[in-house]
Amino acid sequence: MINDFASANLARHIEDETKEYPDIPSSKKKGNEAAVSLNNKILYLEQSLEKVKKLSASGEEEKQIKALSQQLYELVIPVYKNEYLAYAKLCDSKGSRAAKDEMIKNIAEKYGARFEQTFNALMEKGKTYAHEHNIQVNWGK
Is residue 67 classed exposed, middle or buried when 0-12, 13-18 and 19+ CB atoms within 10 A define those classes? Predict the structure, then answer.
């Protein structure tokens, strides 16, 4: 759900919510689709964070995984609520390509490295934990 954070893929997905096709009348947009879609994602992320906070972690590995998960959500949620929501509204209002590109570039520069570092650390801890506890996980490969 958040692995595409600070990427061109996420920006494209948000902008795709605003696409209309002349030959398909049902594709006519109201002008708020990107923002509505993003707000739904934000609600899901906030619910997920609450679930992570309620998890009990007894061992040191579990505590580290829980802490990294919480850090990741606490990093991305404010960016979704602020920068990405502003981007979605710009997409909904058919803002300029230059303005959209600048917003996405700023997000990537400001948050990309920290997200990637935390995400990768979480994945490594998770893979090690799963392997050590014989837990079968599909890591998206």
Answer: middle
